[in-house]
Structure formats: structure tokens, C-alpha cells
Design brief:
By secondary structure, the protein is mainly alpha-helical. It has one domain. Helices cover 75% and strands 0% of the residues. The chain has eleven helices and no strands. Helix 3 packs antiparallel against helix 5. The protein is globular and about 60 Å long.
């Protein structure tokens, strides 16, 4: 366990020195998510909020988008990081180190994911916290639950990112896979549009993504959109994360077997 933690720490430091070495990069990590947030907010604002989506005024809309975007940005950074790893490390010839090193491979994949999460989302999360405080969503009664929310997001998005890092390890062109994972996730997870507004087939599709459960739990804890239960979401998230860990281990075993037989880390 101690050695795995050292591996995760090393991957976080490696990413920090390689990808986050400029003040302009840090600035962009805050500006672009805020612009996306404002784009969605002002897309809703011209229309009258009648309560159909569970919101009846501008502050409720801000709280809805603040919780959704804070969670989505964590998961989006995982997709972006996995795609970046597939390109940068394959071009630089360092992708093979995962199988050449005696370090725990699973810890390396999760370390890559966690490094991107910590570096890319902390500033935007501060912005979302400001939005939630402004709208009165965060109060003394639920303030003690904030560490639980952040821990939930960190664990869920890291497991999601570890799976994607494993998927992109043997993909030469990961851009289309990135679109397949990211676009349906932002559409069906409830980060921008309440899941209750979707037809039944879309509600079923939303259950595939762990982000859906994380957002539902966050809104329950913060009493956003009048959510009244969380047991089903906790159960669904646990099942979803367990399946993703199993997929990660299976894919890692498959790519290692393929590498031993062919000497290549590319399936196509």
C-alpha cells in the first residue's frame, strides 16, 4: 500500500512539472470552465423559469448549474487527461514504461488521473463554491458535508479516469473515443439539463455514467432541486465504480498479454 501511494505521488508530480508549468496554463484552467458555465446560464436566462425543471428563479438556476458543473469539470478533466496521455506518452515513447517498471500499474493509472484532477479543477471548484454561497445553497447545516462531497468527487472521478487511461493505452487515435465518452456524459448526466426532463430511454442511459449519481448525491446534500432520497444513488454509484474497476483490471491484463505476444501496445 505504501509503495502504491509513492507511485501515485510520483505521477502527480510528473504531471505538474510537465503540463502545468506556466501561469497562462493555470489562467486557462479557470477561464474556460467559467466561460462554459456562463454560456449555459445565459442560454437559460432569457426564458421564464416556470418550475418545470425544478427551478423557479435565477438563484435556483445558478445553484443547479453550480453543482452540475463542479462535478462535470472533475470528470471532464479525466477524459481530457486520458486523451492527452494517449498522445503525449505514445509520441515521447514513455507509454511502455507502464509495463517495463516494477511499480504497481493500477497505481500508475490512478496517479495519472488524480494528478490531472488536482491540478485542473481546484480553481473552478472555488468559483462554484462562491456561486453556491452567493445563492444561499451552502449553509451551516450542510457545511460539514462539503468534505464528503469532495471525497466523493475525487474517488469517483479518479476511478473513471483510471479506466479511461487504460482504454487509451492501446488506442492510436483516441479523439473519437474521447467524444464518445464525453458528449453523452455531459448531455445525460444532469449537469446542464435535469434528468427528470428526459424521456425514459435517456433516463436509463444516464445510469451508465457515475457522474449522474455524484450530481444527484450532491444536490441531495445541498438541497438543490428538491431531491429527497440518496440511497438509490449511493447504491448505483457503488455498483458503477465496482464495474469500472473490474473493467480497468481486465483491460490492463489484456493489453499486457497482447504486449507480451506482439511487443506492441497498439491493438489497431
Amino acid at each position: 500500500m505504501k509503495k502504491s501511494l509513492f507511485v501515485i505521488k510520483a505521477e502527480i508530480l510528473k504531471q505538474q512539472r510537465h503540463d502545468y508549468h506556466s501561469a497562462f496554463i493555470w489562467f486557462s484552467l479557470l477561464v474556460w470552465p467559467i466561460l462554459g458555465f456562463l454560456e449555459v446560464y445565459y442560454s437559460y436566462k432569457p426564458f421564464e423559469l416556470t418550475g418545470y425543471m425544478g427551478m423557479s428563479n435565477g438563484k435556483e438556476l445558478l445553484a443547479f448549474l453550480g453543482t452540475g458543473y463542479m462535478a462535470y469539470t472533475c470528470f471532464w478533466s479525466m477524459v481530457q487527461n486520458a486523451w492527452s496521455m494517449a498522445n503525449q506518452e505514445r509520441r515521447s515513447g514513455t507509454l511502455e514504461i507502464i509495463f517495463l517498471t516494477p511499480a504497481n500499474r493500477l497505481a500508475m493509472c490512478y496517479g495519472k488521473a488524480l494528478g490531472a484532477l488536482i491540478q485542473e479543477v481546484w480553481m473552478f471548484c472555488c468559483f462554484c463554491l462562491f456561486i453556491l454561497i452567493y445563492t444561499g445553497t451552502i449553509s451551516f447545516s450542510n457545511l460539514v458535508m462539503l468534505p464528503f462531497i469532495f471525497l466523493l468527487l475525487i474517488i469517483s472521478s479518479t476511478v473513471w479516469g483510471g479506466m479511461l487511461n487504460t482504454v487509451f493505452m492501446f488506442s492510436r487515435d483516441a479523439s473519437i473515443i474521447m467524444d464518445i465518452f464525453d458528449t453523452p456524459m455531459v448531455l445525460f448526466s444532469g449537469s446542464r439539463i435535469p434528468v427528470s426532463c428526459f424521456p425514459q430511454w435517456a433516463k436509463v442511459l444516464s445510469l451508465i455514467f457515475p457522474l449522474t449519481y455524484c450530481i444527484n448525491i450532491m444536490r441531495f446534500v445541498l438541497n438543490v432541486q428538491g431531491r429527497k432520497e440518496w440511497i438509490g444513488d449511493i447504491t448505483g454509484l457503488t455498483v458503477c465504480l465496482s464495474v469500472m474497476i473490474a473493467i480497468t483490471l481486465l483491460l490492463m491484463r489484456k493489453i499486457e498479454q497482447h504486449n507480451r505476444e506482439t511487443g506492441e501496445l497498439q491493438f489497431y
